[in-house]
Design goal:
This protein is mainly β. It contains no helices and 16 strands. The protein has a six-stranded antiparallel β-sheet with strand order 1-6-2-3-4-5, with no helix packed on it. Strands 9-8-7-10-11 form a five-stranded antiparallel β-sheet, with no helix packed on it. The mean pLDDT is 89.
Length: 187
């Protein structure tokens, strides 16, 4: 058990029968009335983010979760197969637990979140940035840059990312996995 004083970003709690990650929190002490804590909670299973307010001092049940490094091996009819980087054991996750699958290539390192008591995999997370090669994009037209113009580009995993006009085919780019946006060109 924990109280609202123990809240921190990344804390996993049991709330309304599900596991939730605290992504943001703010302690508020109004001039009149009791103190409270505003939070943004992310559902581990669905990825849905909700706002919730807890009265200060309320006890909540924490869930023990562990982050373990894995490597993506291949995809088959059962889902996505990963190998533990330490024990070399394989884990298969269905598509719902891998939200960024179209940015993942074979050999990609990911972090899988496990519920420590039941040893159940909860979700997989890519690093913040991944490097991918552009397989197809239209050539940029010179002089077409009055504003921050962009064009669609298909990367080696099949995902379509919006990139600036000066980016060409067969170039390596860095993609932000949180927002699916172009970050920079890789030399």
């Amino acid at each position: 058990m924990a109280t609202t004083a123990d809240f921190r970003n990344g804390l996993c709690i049991e709330f309304n029968g599900d596991l939730w990650l605290i992504t943001e929190f703010q302690h508020v002490k109004p001039g009149k009335g009791p103190a409270f804590v505003r939070t943004k909670l992310k559902n581990i299973k669905t990825g849905k983010v909700v706002d919730n307010t807890f009265t200060a001092g309320v006890k909540v049940t924490t869930a023990r979760v562990e982050q373990r490094p894995h490597q993506f091996i291949f995809k088959d009819d059962y889902g996505y197969n990963f190998m533990d980087m330490n024990t070399f054991e394989q884990v298969t996750l269905n598509e719902k637990l891998v939200p960024f699958a179209d940015l993942m290539k074979e050999g990609q390192e990911v972090t899988i979140l496990f519920h420590a008591e039941t040893e159940t995999p909860l979700t997989a997370e890519l690093p913040t940035y991944v490097e991918l090669v552009i397989t197809y994009t239209e050539p940029g037209i010179k002089g077409d840059t009055a504003t921050n113009a962009s064009k669609p580009a298909t990367v080696e995993t099949g995902a379509t990312i919006s990139v600036p006009l000066f980016i060409g085919q067969d170039e390596k780019i860095k993609v932000d996995t949180r927002t699916y946006t172009y970050a920079e060109r890789v030399k």
